[in-house]
Amino acid sequence: MNAPSNSRRNFLKTVAGISVLTPFSTSFAEPLHDSHKTIKKAKNLIFLVVDGMGRGTLSLANNFSNRQFNAPLNWVQLMNHKHVYSSLQDTASFDSYVTDSAAAASAWGCGVRVQNGRINVDAEGRSIKPIFSRAKSKGKAVGLVTTTSITHATPAGFAANAESRYDQETIAQQYLEREIDLLLGGGAQYFKDDNKALLKRFEDKGYSVVQVLDDLIFNKNRSKLLGLFADGHLPYAIDRKNAQQYFSVPSLNEMFVVALENLQTSKNGFVLQVESGRVDHAGHVNDTGAIIEEQLEFDRCITTAIDFANQSPETLVIITTDHGCGGCQLNGIGHRYLDSNKGMDQILKQKASLEYIGKQFLKLGHPDKELFQSLMGVSLRDKDLKTIQSMLNNEYIREEYGFVARDPHGDTSDVDDRKTAKSKSYFLGNLAEYFQEAQFKLTGVSWTSHQHTSELVDLMAYGPHANALPSFMKNYELNTFMCDALNI
Predict the structure, then answer these.
(1) Is 304:25 a contact under the CB 8 Å cutoff?
(2) 3-state DSSP assignment of residue 127
(3) Rounded to whole angstroms, how far apart are CA atoms 455 and 460?
């Protein structure tokens, strides 16, 4: 791992009372205190969500953590403490057992199940007041932190109303109109209407606008803060860790720490959502190394949240996910399944996401054998090089399972409307699926699909009102739980 910049290192050292230097917590070694039990209502809410994390992803990352760091995830450590309350959550949307992120976040945000693709707009087309609007009416500060575009479905579910989750320009405008105090993530492209007129309107309303880590640290105590660190989503954590061109992009935990520094000055408290959004994306493209690093990055935020809550016992912490994605699982391979342990060592060799590698191949116009070996720890065969080149040449069409060659002399009517390899996302999906069988043999990790899954997901709560958490709940019921805790 490359060393962090001096500004990054010094910042992490000087943030008062927040343990962010080590990947895993030492604060969980002692029982968490119960001073919050004398507090009837929460003043603050920290809502940590790892988008797209199924139980298989959690288990895989925990195995990886034990192998690399000789310690379980903070998530797993936290579940052992009597003052932390756990629940299973049903994630369905209004119209499907399998939710998308918009419907899932809206269920939390407004307390009603909506159709997939909508943001806090019900089946009759009515806009329902989201939780941030309720919190603002009580004088609380509100903030969103994410590794996706800040206008993406999960953050929007706490703050906006839209018939389509893809109307991200409108969502950006609503953030300004509703005076969301802090916004940190990607999505700069959605704030550049009319030659950056929207950004100017944010500045005119008193927001500091920042685009790199150093400026974020310099502005950490501003009352209104807009940080946009990529045109779209932030690069994957594995790429920010290893690729020098991304060193100026803050980590999720660094953005989280700045958010706490900013929002804790609100005399009436705050509500803060922090999302690790690219676990979901890594699940969609079945990228094992990327999904583990995303999960590890999110896990460091748990330490930060619990340390803050221990210092500010009026703070309720909720840790959860909205749905699974990809159906990731570590399977038994080898004699007596012993090669599954070695699989963790193979995953350690991966130094970049398939997204990053795919971008390099697209830029070059051909696959690079040495680059792939250095970043994936896998040697490409001549057959692999030819297949990848055929993808780049748009000579292969991805079927539901596997690949079929395009016949230039045959009937192509059934494939003319398909996405082609000229699409970056299509090529990356091709690349990931092509290597699935090889990756399974090396690591034991397999996937059920490139889509969301319907499994019940985990939820934990710590702080005031946490003991009221039911052992099983439907996702929309969490809104009532949060509003009751905050008395809003």
Answers:
(1) no
(2) strand
(3) 17
pTM of the model: 0.91
The per-residue pLDDT for range 64-97, each reduced to its tens digit, is 999 999 999 999 999 989 899 999 999 999 999 9
Say if CB 455 and CB 92 are below 8 A apart: no
Confirm if 115 and 65 have CB atoms less than 8 A apart: no
Same domain, 465 and 421: no
- Report pLDDT digits (tens) over 14-64: 453 444 433 445 445 445 766 667 777 999 999 999 999 999 999 999 999
Residue 381 belongs to domain spanning? 350-446
Measured CA to CA, the distance from residue 420 to residue 422 in angstroms comes to 5
Residue 121 DSSP class:
B
Structure tokens at 243: 């690729």
Please tell me what DSSP assigns to residue 480.
Answer: H
Helix (H, G, I), strand (E, B) or coil at 213: helix
Give me the helices (H) in 111-151, please: 131-137
- HSE-up of residue 231 (Cα within 13 Å, Cβ side): 4
Considering the domain architecture, whether residues 434 and 458 belong to the same structural domain is answered as no
Query: What whole-number distance in Å separates Cα of residue 155 and Cα of residue 159?
Result: 7
The amino acid occupying position 381 is R
